[in-house]
Amino acid sequence: MRVLAATVVVLFSLALALILAGHRLIPDIGEWTMGLESFLPWLGLLSVLLLIPAIRSRSALAWFAWLVPVLVWALVFVPNILPGTASTTGSNKLSVATQNLQGYNGSLSSKDALIAQDADLVALQEVKTPEALDELLAKYPYQERVGTVALLSKYPFKESAGLDLNGFSSYRALHATVQTPSGDVSVYVVHGASVSGGDHSARDEMLNDLQQRLAQDPAPRLLVMGDFNAAPTNRIMDGFNNQLQEKLSSSGGFGFTWPAKFPVTRPDHILSKGFSITDSSVLAPIGSDHLGLSNNLSY
């Protein structure tokens, strides 16, 4: 039994370490691979289960093998989930927020987190009942809405329009150049195409198109906000992470946003270029099945 327990620990520990470190090398076979990457941080719990056979084996080799995925998990995730220290690169400030309103049927009031945040820019997705957003909309003199995505701003737009991202121009994405007191900011609001039955090709095509547009955008300050329908660990996010920065949560942790009642993954993002992120947080629930995000930026 001890030999069997040691064998189980060694084999499963090494497999777990390989998945954590090399999940992008696993063939993309639809829902299975996407789900694995979306919930990748939770694989660390498997190491806890492997403690039982490791203890029963009384084997130094088993204990060494058990430590391998634990160390790999720490190397992959800990640098991004530690509490951050505020850093600034200038005296100019900009506050932004994003919220998917899916499942939201109430009326926002000033006590709700999205309004209380009082951000300079607010990105919305799944905007279906604007009459319920009267108090929020009244705070922003400049607004652009395309289909079910919207951008609310305290500052005027130099230009704004819907984005044609592989055929989703009518309701999934928009771009605006916002004229802040300290210069223009190029802002993108996106709602990644839905994933159906494990087929994420439409989402990938849409996000790949957006990545190419970002690479060609000459703006020194750039923001991309919204529900990407992709977690930070999904391979489709690599193209964004190579160009832009994201802070999960200034207080530490993964900053999970979905589902709102018990968040286990993070399909929502605020990505930026040309800014220092002085604070990043997950907003309190407002009745949607997503939690919102906010960033305080300096430049």
From TrEMBL:
One Pfam short name: Exo_endo_phos
Keywords, sorted A to Z: Membrane, Transmembrane, Transmembrane helix
BP GO annotations: GPI anchor biosynthetic process
Segments traversing the membrane: 38-55, 62-82
Gene3D superfamilies for this protein: Endonuclease/exonuclease/phosphatase
One annotated GO molecular function: catalytic activity
A GO term from the CC aspect: membrane
InterPro entries, per database record: Endo/exonu/phosph_ase_sf, Endo/exonuclease/phosphatase, GPI-anchor_lipid_remodeler
Segments forming domain Endonuclease/exonuclease/phosphatase: 98-290
Protein name, UniProt field: Endonuclease/exonuclease/phosphatase domain-containing protein
Phylogenetic classification of the source organism: Bacteria, Bacillati, Actinomycetota, Actinomycetes, Micrococcales
